[in-house]
Amino acid sequence: MADGNLHARYRHASDVWRAHHRACEPCRSGQHCPAGAPLYQRFADLQDACLRQLR
Questions:
Q1: Which residues does 40 contact at the CB level (< 8 Å), separation at least 6?
Q2: pLDDT by residue (tens digit) across 5-31?
Q3: What does 36-52 look like in DSSP terms, one character per residue?
């Protein structure tokens, strides 16, 4: 996987998660809703992958 592609996917997942988070009361209170949980997990997984790649 190319470095730029991973970073682009991470940025997109971050944008999607943040947009959802702003509009979702359960996610803002720390209780992920059924739609928010997979969005957050994808963001976290891609963030971990980017950090691993930097090491």
A1: 17, 27, 32
A2: 999 999 999 999 999 999 999 999 989
A3: HHHHHHHHHHHHHHHHH
